[in-house]
Amino acid sequence: MPINVLFAAKPERWSTYGPALKRAFDEVGLDVDLRPDFDPAEVDYLVYAPNGSVTDFTPFTRAKAVLNLWAGVEDVVGNTTLHIPLARMVDDGLTEGMVEWVVGHTLRHHLGIDLHIHGQDGQWRAHVPPLARDRKVGILGLGELGRECAYALRELKFDVAGWSRSEKQLNGVKCYHGDAGLRTVLGRSEILILLLPLTGDTRDLLDAKRLALLPEGAVIINPGRGPLIDDAALLDALDSGRIGHATLDVFRVEPLPVDHPFWTHPRVTVTPHIASETRPESASRVIAENIRRGEAGAPFMHLVNRDLGY
Ligand code: NAP
Question: Does residue 127 have a pLDDT over 90?
Fold first, then answer.
């Protein structure tokens, strides 16, 4: 009997993911009937995206797991109809994309690249940027993405500190946790990168009080989630110049409404939630491996802790 897998993401993703998933199932030797449509009572696994059409998991009476295509689970983790394991996406391709985006935007601010792109006016401004070793970077969230970004920045010799919920030790990265740890990281971060999940504990984490702890002129780079930052407090801090710049990839409302002040603020760079994306080929291999494990009675990878919300 084949394993019945429902592709429960946006229909326009099917043409890319269908073939990639089939290849991945073949690679691990799984006999899978994969479809974008199924009688819910016959489904064994859901390959899922929170912006797809499934919001009620009740009819999926024999399903063994929901395998999320996204790293972020804030739109599904609280679903009260979901009583089977939920796995989030950890994908090499997605991680590599995030590392490239974070390193690129960090270097932009570290090197002051804008000065030359926007200031080519015949004036010879011989401003030499400091070395990375003299630049303090902070990363809030040291999970799959934050950790790899920390390592990449460390390789460039940035002075990197990070903050997580639990205590960590990462080679060459100063690791902090708890409230005092957060204050320490904020207090030293000339460039602050947000790679936290959105949970009850992290919503509005960067409020006016915490923004005030950052060094004068600090830069914020947020590829995590929009509601991690209090928008009004950030705009105040940008208006006064306390915060030098914010590069924002994620927002409370997406797409960012055309009249939102972030679009036109001289100290804000908006990117349209493109910091990184799940890559179909590598993500399909992760999904296939998780189904193989499920069928072999082995523990699923990347399970979400429903109590913690990530
Ligand atoms: P992850 O592996 O679950 O890591 C989350 C990190 O945040 C962990 O280090 C965790 O601490 C820490 N954390 C969670 N709650 C915390 C709290 N209350 N206080 C302090 N630290 C806390 O997640 P990930 O795969 O790195 O992804 C992070 C987020 O990136 C996703 O949730 C998503 O929102 C965002 N994302 C954005 C894009 C984009 O294109 N913009 C793409 C992918 C993902 P512990 O290590 O102690 O558990």
Answer: no
Instruction: Kindly state whether residues 233 and 104 are assigned to the same domain.
Output: yes
Residue type, 158: F
Torsion of CA 53, 285, 83, 37, to 10 degrees: 30
Q: Whose CA is nearest to atom 25 of ligand 1?
A: 144
- If asked whether residues 120 and 264 sit together in one domain, one would say yes
* CATH number of the CATH domain containing 289: 3.40.50.720
The rounded Cα 80 to chain-centroid distance in angstroms is 24
Decide if 231 is inside a domain: yes
- β-sheet bridge partners, residue 136: 159
Catalytic residue list: 225, 273
Q: Is any ligand 1 atom within 6 A of the Cβ of residue 225? A: yes
Question: Are 60 and 42 in the same domain?
Answer: yes
CA of 288 to the centre of ligand 1 (A): 23
Which residue type is seen at 91? D
The tens digit of pLDDT for each residue in 157-206 reads 999 999 999 999 999 999 999 999 999 999 999 999 999 999 999 999 99
| Token representation of residue 90 | 């950890």
280 lines ligand 1 (CB under 6 A): no
Which residue among 140, 144, 310 is best mutated to probe the pocket of ligand 1, counting the most ligand atoms within 8 A of its Cβ? 310
Quote the number of domains for the chain: 2
Q: What is the pLDDT of residues 205-249, one digit of tens each?
A: 999 999 999 999 999 999 999 999 999 999 999 999 999 999 999
At residue 95, the 3 state secondary structure works out as helix
Q: Verify that 168 and 221 share a domain, yes or no.
A: yes
CA 125 to ligand 1 center in whole angstroms: 40
**Do residues 60 and 46 make contact, with C-beta atoms less than 8 angstroms apart?**
yes
What is the residue with the minimal CA distance to atom 22 of ligand 1?
165
